Amino acid sequence: MTEVMTPVAARAPEQKPPEAQQPQYTFKFSEFLRREYRFGLNPDRPTCKAYLQGHCPDGNRCPNKHNVSSSYNKLTVFFHSLTCSNGDDCLYLHIDPEAKRPSCPHYDRGFCPLGPHCALKHNKKEKLCPFYLCGFCPEGKGCKYGAHPRFPTDLKKPEVRVEKSPEELEAERIEREREMMRREEEERERDDRNGHQGGRGFRGNWDRKKRGGRRGRGGRGRGGDF
Where are the zinc fingers (C3H1-type) (predicted)? Predict the structure, then answer.
């Protein structure tokens, strides 16, 4: 007679009691604290690169950090030589020096004879108003046909853009690095000097008061003898 083996019922997994969730509170001033003081946001969140360049489209709703510290507004010298290893994670600004060139008034007026060889910057506009270019636009400031360029009368003659050699670019890069190192050294020396002066000044005043008090007591004592 054979015994029939019945399968053992599988044990149900032990269910842990749900952890008590912390209550969530919403106050009327929470939005004000978040907007004005960035309260409640993770301080370790990355810095917004668009905000550093001055054109963050998200504004106060940006999930990244809007830091206005001077250390974040510095230009990295490595980007000028195209060797910044930090890439997009760099905390310093990556701005092309060519972007700092002033705009060309001839191009803003509608035409620059030098074209891409101009030494000034050509800011492209989406569309110019054809009526304004002809001499008069009846819509004025409310024109929807395009931009209204300005027409100054005393325009400077356009100059040809001078292409710099690799040696000149390298010399400028070295000069920028030296200038930045010199400024950092001056700041470091100024901080050290202020710290040492504060320490010496404190001890010096305390020593003078202490010595002055001794002389005063001694003088009064000698005066009493006479």
Answer: 42-69, 98-122, 123-151
- Give the tokens for residue 117: 């060889």
Residue spans per domain, the chain: 98-184
pLDDT of residue 86: 67
Look up the pTM and report it.
0.28
Residue 47 to residue 65: CA distance in whole angstroms:
4
Convert the pLDDT of each residue in 78-118 to its tens digit.
445 455 666 666 656 666 666 667 888 777 776 778 888 88
Annotate the chain with three-state secondary structure: CCCCCCCCCCCCCCCCCCCCCCCCCCCCCHHHHHHHHCCCCCCCCCECHHHHCCCCCCHHHCCCECCCCCCCCCECHHHHCCCCCCHHHCCCECCCHHHHCCECHHHHHCCCCCHHHECCECCCCCCECHHHHHCCCCCHHHCCCCECCCCCCCCCCCCECCCCCHHHHHHHHHHHHHHHHHHHHHHHHHHHHHHHHHHHHHHHHHHHHHHHHHHHHHHHHHHHHC
